Amino acid sequence: MSFTTSPLIKVIIVDDHEIILDGLRDMLNLEPDIEIVGKASGPEMLFNLLKNKTVDVVLMDVEMPKMDGIEATKIIKEQYPDINVLILTQHNRVGMISHAIKNGASGYVLKTAPKRTLIEGIHAVNNGLLFTQGIKLPSARNNTDEPSLTESEKKVISLIVQEKTAQEIATELKLSINTINQHTKNIRSKLGVKNVVGIVNYAYKNGLC
What we know:
CATH topology of the largest domain: Rossmann fold
Radius of gyration: 17 Å
Structural class: alpha/beta
CATH superfamily of the largest domain: Response regulator
CATH class of the largest domain: Alpha Beta
């Protein structure tokens, strides 16, 4: 499947409750830059949709029969790495959220969150950012094979994990935006990742935050 730049964020919603599927579809279709291209009551239906749809973001429920949303997320990221998964859950358990991100999710939104938070989350993950509603997740483990990072690069990673934008990082560290962009580029190269989500995932998995 090929993915092309589009002014519309193409979204598929996955939830095993029809009323939630229809409610989210109707709500999000009111947004001028979001297009709901499909809805699925479970992972099997989702995987069938992904074979024929161009998708930017999947809104993924966690608790579903047969296969949960985290396992489905892992499969999506293996088969369609350009698709971003935003977990939509009623549980605010840090362990579950951290587990979802380790398996490829780009963030999560509580089902009790206001509409504006969900919209913000969709835009954030579509732009390659991690979205955790401000909750700092714990490190997965310590790693003695940590790449050779400068103190400035470690500070940038810490602020990226806090969901700071490049401009906010530049302001806080009193550096130019060009310097921050260069730091981020160097960090990606050292960690062997492609984008900001990769930096955050690496940081959590390897005890860099």
